[in-house]
């Protein structure tokens, strides 16, 4: 049992250091030797814990997207108005970013280095998240809460762009909490899409 716990701890350290290195040096600029050195292992010893560098990237990216999907599925299934659900999505998205902006940047930028089935899985999950937000915004248009003169696709992509950009400028030690920033972004976006 102690060996299994030690393996999980080592794997957690490997993921943490890989995230940091992918964020600082990029996926292609990070070697297995870099990751091994960061966790204090011989490069060959890494393979006792992982299959390879792409496996690490997939786990980081997919784990991050899964957090956004869980938030999205909870919001889209809720009984509240489209405006309340969109506010919940916006605030939740920013809260996930604020938990670990460094990881979020890897999730948002480094996924392109995945290949084959790994890439297809991640692209599908990204599409699912966009579809969730589209459903909520579309519901707001349909019920008259949001201005139906706005283009749906442009509105959704603009919203995602604004939310995803938060990871670029959010500072954990800044004067504002993730919750405060999420509330302000929700106010700004919702004021922009409200119908008359």
TrEMBL record:
<keyword id="KW-0678">Repressor</keyword>
<feature type="DNA-binding region" description="H-T-H motif">
    <location>
        <begin position="31"/>
        <end position="50"/>
    </location>
</feature>
<dbReference type="InterPro" id="IPR041490">
    <property type="entry name" value="KstR2_TetR_C"/>
</dbReference>
<feature type="domain" description="HTH tetR-type">
    <location>
        <begin position="8"/>
        <end position="68"/>
    </location>
</feature>
<dbReference type="InterPro" id="IPR009057">
    <property type="entry name" value="Homeodomain-like_sf"/>
</dbReference>
<dbReference type="InterPro" id="IPR050109">
    <property type="entry name" value="HTH-type_TetR-like_transc_reg"/>
</dbReference>
<keyword id="KW-0805">Transcription regulation</keyword>
<keyword id="KW-0238">DNA-binding</keyword>
<dbReference type="Pfam" id="PF00440">
    <property type="entry name" value="TetR_N"/>
</dbReference>
<keyword id="KW-0804">Transcription</keyword>
<protein>
    <submittedName>
        <fullName>TetR/AcrR family transcriptional regulator</fullName>
    </submittedName>
</protein>
<dbReference type="InterPro" id="IPR001647">
    <property type="entry name" value="HTH_TetR"/>
</dbReference>
<dbReference type="Pfam" id="PF17932">
    <property type="entry name" value="TetR_C_24"/>
</dbReference>
<dbReference type="InterPro" id="IPR036271">
    <property type="entry name" value="Tet_transcr_reg_TetR-rel_C_sf"/>
</dbReference>
């Amino acid at each position: 049992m102690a060996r299994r716990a030690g393996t999980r701890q080592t794997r957690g350290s490997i993921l943490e250091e890989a995230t940091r290195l992918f964020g600082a040096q990029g996926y292609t600029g990070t070697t297995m030797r870099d990751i091994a050195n960061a966790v204090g292992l011989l490069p060959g010893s890494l393979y006792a814990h992982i299959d390879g560098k792409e496996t690490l990237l997939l786990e980081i990216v997919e784990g991050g997207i899964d957090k956004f999907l869980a938030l999205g599925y909870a919001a889209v299934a809720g009984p509240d108005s489209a405006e309340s659900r969109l506010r919940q999505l916006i605030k939740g998205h920013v809260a996930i970013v604020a938990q670990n902006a460094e990881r979020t940047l890897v999730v948002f930028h480094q996924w392109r280095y995945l290949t084959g089935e790994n890439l297809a899985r991640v692209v599908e999950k990204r599409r699912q998240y966009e579809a969730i937000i589209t459903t909520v915004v579309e519901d707001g248009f349909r019920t008259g809460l949001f201005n139906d003169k706005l283009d749906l696709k442009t509105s959704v992509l603009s919203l995602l762009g604004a939310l995803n950009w938060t990871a670029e400028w959010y500072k954990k030690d800044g004067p504002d909490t993730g919750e405060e920033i999420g509330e302000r972004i929700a106010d700004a976006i919702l004021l922009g899409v409200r119908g008359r």
